[in-house]
Amino acid sequence: MPITPKSLEEAWSAICRKMSQADGSLVLEQALIHGEVGLSAVVRVRDSMPGIVIRVPSRWSVTRWQFQRLTGVHFEEVLKDHNDILLPIILADADAAGIFAIFASDLASTVSAECPLDEKMRRLMDQVGLWKRFFQHRAGRLSEEEVRGLVGELEILGILVRTHGADFALESWRGPSGQLHDFHLPAFRIEVKTWINESLPRIFISDPSQIVIDAAWPVWLAAMQLSRDNYTGMTLPERVVELAAGMNSAQRTILEALLADVGFLACHAEIYTNRYLVRDTVFHRVVEGFPMIAPAMIPSGITCLKYALELGALTPFVTPSPIEK
Predict the structure, then answer these.
(1) What is the pLDDT of residue 20?
(2) pLDDT of 199 over the 70 cut
(3) Assuming Cys at both sites, which of 37, 107, 162, 229 could form a disulfide with 277, CB separation 3.0 to 4.6 Å?
């Protein structure tokens, strides 16, 4: 049976009906996958919090399992149960139930795989590590605006891979770490903004410090036009697959981790079905006269400022691509 929000909810409800039989147990469980490594739906007895546990033989080393409370999900301390070790993961926010079910289903794919215990546990802990990076920042899917922004960053990343190599490109991509500009190159910075052709030709600046005149680290603004195109466009997962195809195993591992930081994992593919075509990318150099709101101009007390730039006003600052010379 596939793991879905509905199937998990049904399992948790069935467990709760047996709560009177807890008899000193820390959790009550209902097995989802049996085997040397198992996966169960659980409800914690002391507070009725739902979740899942990975059940592994006690001979497995628990050094890679760490207690951590993240957005909507808590990775709890190891529990002992006879000859097994239980690795509990508790759903702490009901609004995260949808993504939690995808998480459980992703783990189930490895738990049910036919491979030696050490290999299976290595894969599981790698998966858990990626999901922890995801849960550091969110407990739900990317918004459509965030998807378009990521499509734009992946387009520039792909150009850098072709022109400078994957190692250089991945090192340059700083958007996933929340830095001010999406790409840090040795001599300049690039900030990527996307706009869709069904809307007005404008882009939004979410932080005035992104668009500044800086002699030490000149800034280029890449304005990328996207269109929804169900025939020649690509989904976000397809773009990721295409980009990863040209990388070696180590580079793909880095790419997966960076994407997890942004909020995308390969197992999310089914929830991102909109197809976007990159129609045009125009680079603008931020120099004297560029329309902007300089941070020094913002009165004290204003803690958040977002503004729109009409692309027509940026025409005098159009330059050739600084990364394809």
Answers:
(1) 80
(2) no
(3) 229
List of residues 6+ apart from 148 with CB closer than 8 A: 194, 196, 226, 276
Residue 325 has pLDDT above 70, yes or no: no
Q: Where are the domains of the chain?
A: 5-135, 144-319
Does residue 28 contact residue 117 with C-beta atoms inside 8 Å?
Answer: no
- How many Å apart are CA 196 and CA 104, to the nearest integer? 35
Q: Three-state SS for 46?
A: coil
Give me the DSSP letters along 147-197: HHHHHHHHHHHHHHHHHH-HHHHHHHB-GGGT-SSSEE-SS-EEEEEEEET
Tell me the C-alpha distance between 184 and 254, whole Å.
17
Q: Tell me how far apart the alpha carbons of residues 53 and 39 are, in angstroms, rounded to a whole number.
A: 6
Torsion of CA 145, 171, 246, 228, to 10 degrees: 10
Contacts of 219 by beta carbon, 8 Å cutoff, 6+ apart: 181, 188, 189, 190, 191, 210, 211, 212, 213, 285, 286
| Residue 250, pLDDT above cutoff 80 | yes
To the nearest 10 degrees (0 to 180), the angle between helices 236-245 and 249-262 is: 150
> Does residue 51 contact residue 42 with C-beta atoms inside 8 Å?
yes
**CA–CA–CA angle 126, 237, 116 (5° rounding):** 30
Q: Could you read off the pLDDT of 151-197 as tens digits, one per residue? A: 999 999 999 999 999 999 999 999 999 899 999 999 999 999 999 97
Longest dimension (CA), the chain: 75
Strands 276-285 and 219-228: antiparallel
Looking up tokens 């692309």, which residue turns up?
Answer: 311
| 138-150 tens-digit pLDDT | 889 999 999 999 9
CB 81 within 8 A of CB 54: no
Tokens of 237: 């997962």
The answer to whether the CB of 251 falls within 8 A of the CB of 259 is: no
